[in-house]
Amino acid sequence: MKNKGEMMENAKTKMDRFLNNICRVAGWNGIFNKKEVECLFENYSDLQFCNGHLRRIEAKPITDNCIKLYTVPA
Known about the structure:
Strand content: 35-45%
Structural class: alpha+beta
Oligomer: single chain
Number of domains: 1
Helix content: 25-40%
Number of helices: 2
Shape: globular
């Protein structure tokens, strides 16, 4: 069983990878759980640059614990 610190690091690693991808591909999206999405918005801005264009990260709930993240032009 993972402790909370390991789970948060895993969420941070996933969000780092997601941010890296959305900064390169404007249409990149992903599905994450609540803890991972909370980690993203607690540690990073919802505004990111992708190929020189400012984009906003949007969150669309799918279920109670399943959220789709994607970007739209800001």
